[in-house]
Amino acid sequence: MPKMKTNRAAAKRFKRTAKGGFKSGNSFTSHRFHGKTKKQRRQLRGLSMMDKTNVKRYKKLLPFK
């Protein structure tokens, strides 16, 4: 049986946590900040946890990470 391949696009975008969750960067952070409030801009910094409904799907894409 062949080895499972890691999906490289997903590997570049998501990191696996120790408990098995996934964290990723936020969307809406590349440009056009003048239309967003200060609170929105502040909360978009850093990483955010992926919703648990998507975790099962991404575990298949990143089997060894």
UniProtKB/TrEMBL annotation:
One of its GO terms (molecular function) is structural constituent of ribosome. One of its GO terms (cellular component) is cytosolic large ribosomal subunit. InterPro entries: Ribosomal_bL35, Ribosomal_bL35-like, Ribosomal_bL35_CS, Ribosomal_bL35_sf. Residues 1-51 are annotated as: Disordered. Keywords: Ribonucleoprotein, Ribosomal protein. Residues 31-44 have a biased composition (Basic residues). The keyword Chaperone does not apply. One of its GO terms (biological process) is translation. SUPFAM superfamilies: L35p-like. PROSITE patterns: RIBOSOMAL_L35 (PS00936). Belongs to the bacterial ribosomal protein bL35 family. NCBIfam families: rpmI_bact. This is Large ribosomal subunit protein bL35. The lineage of its organism: Bacteria, Bacillati, Bacillota, Bacilli, Lactobacillales. The gene is rpmI.
